[in-house]
Amino acid sequence: MEASGSRGKGREETSCSLASSSPSCCLASSSASCSLTSSSVRRKRKGKFYASYLLVSLSERSSRGKGRTYIGFTVNPSRRIRQHNGKLAMGACSTRAFRPWEMVLVVYGFSSKGKALAFEWAWQHPRRSKAIKEKVGKIKRTALTGMKGKVRILNELLCSEAFASEAPNLRVQVLDSKHSDVLPCLSQTRVPVSIAPMQELPTEDYGQGEEEEEGALPAGGLGKCMLCFGELIEGCAVLACRCRSAFHVNCLEKHLPNPCPMCQYPLTMDEALDLGRGTADEIEIGIPTAQCGTPTAKERIIEKSSPIVISLLSP
Fold first, then answer.
1. Which is it for strands 246-248 and 238-240: parallel, antiparallel or unpaired?
2. What is the rounded radius of gyration, in angstroms, for the C-alpha atoms of the chain?
3. Concatenated DSSP letters for 160-178?
4. 154 in Cβ contact with 173 (< 8 Å)
5. Rounded Cα distance, 301 and 303, in Å
6. Which has the closest alpha carbon to 312: 249, 239, 237?
7. Is the pLDDT of residue 71 over 90?
8. In principle, which of 19, 137, 183, 186 could form an S-S bond with 30, CB 3.0–4.6 Å?
9. Burial 151-172 (b: 16+ CB within 10 A, else e)
10. 3-class DSSP assignment, residue 54
11. All residues at 6 or more sequence positions from 215 whose CB lies less than 8 Å from its CB, including other chains
12. In the chain, what percentage of residues exceed pLDDT 90?
């Protein structure tokens, strides 16, 4: 490993050699791939570090495990992979059965947490995302599975109009050269792509992200409503947006028909109710700041008719 002062140079050389040795990849152009020079990577950037990432399971315990993929959001990739592998507490429940995991690539440079979460959701649910559902709808489902399939979806997202405003600041970093076979899947995007280890991610060039990823904080509460910032606790109905933001029913009812405050998606009450179904692990864990009030009559009706994310208790 070279000294830290020469890391930028190593990154540049990797990108350049990649462009020249793999012309079929067509990663925008050799100049675009080589734009990640030491000076451009290491200068101080505005905003905080928000990223979406792709994991692949290395589990040998079952045929269902090895090669399985997972897409997530993080403000700290190094810590997040350790959480997924059980070395740190509060990893995602859905990844525990298929450890160990390897982080294949990271997409970073999002302007806000909301944009990063919206990107993550679209990457996870390409056939439901307005950004790319028409394009991926023409592709066989089997072609969208596995590591290469997920990278193919990533390529469509990076080329979509929905994220065109984010694209100039986005970067894709593949964390190991052994995964260079996924690069042809990114041949259409103009977002710079590089191969470099995780420690080369320019997290120090951004402000430290205050908002943590899913499961990164002790669950003293179940998160916070992204409208009133009150704590989501048992006894409160919870609705959700595509970007995984969660809301109290009363708060969202007052907010609509305005779009989601985090990702600007035109959320409806019916869709928020539908998106609220799932497990508590899928809710963004936040810092509780206030107590939730007594459930309203409307919340009790929802409790009887729908399996909301958080189990509801009568007052």
1. antiparallel
2. 20
3. SGGGTTTGGG-EEEES-GG
4. no
5. 5
6. 237
7. yes
8. 19
9. bbbbbbbbbbeebeebbeebbb
10. strand
11. 83, 90, 91, 92, 93, 281, 285
12. 35
Q: Do residues 34 and 9 touch, judged by C-beta distance below 8 A? A: no
Tokens of 173: 């970093």
Q: Which long-range contacts (CB under 8 A, 24 or more apart) does 10-16 make?
A: 10/196, 10/200, 11/36, 11/38, 11/41, 11/194, 11/196, 11/200, 12/36, 12/37, 12/38, 14/177, 14/194, 14/195, 14/196, 15/192, 15/193, 15/194, 15/195
Structure confidence by residue, pLDDT tens digits, 73-108: 999 999 999 999 999 876 677 788 899 999 999 999
Tokens of 183: 């690069």
215, 83 in Cβ contact below 8 A? Answer: yes
Locate 298 and state its tokens.
């409307």
Whose CA is closest to 271, among 165, 163, 125?
A: 125
Peptide bond into 168 cis (omega under 30): no
If one counts every other C-beta atom within 10 angstroms of the C-beta of residue 260, the result is: 24
Q: How many CB atoms lie within 10 A of CB 76?
A: 18
Q: Where in the chain is the domain with CATH 3.30.40?
A: 217-315
The pLDDT tens digits of the residues spanning 183-214 come to: 999 989 999 999 999 999 998 877 655 444 54
Q: How far is CA 183 from the centre of its chain?
A: 20
Judge contact between 56 and 71, C-beta under 8 A. no
Distance CA 105, CA 107 (A): 7
Euclidean distance between CA atoms 89 and 31, whole angstroms: 42
Gap between the terminal Cα atoms of the chain:
59
User: What kind of architecture, by CATH, is found in domain 217-315?
Assistant: 2-Layer Sandwich (3.30)
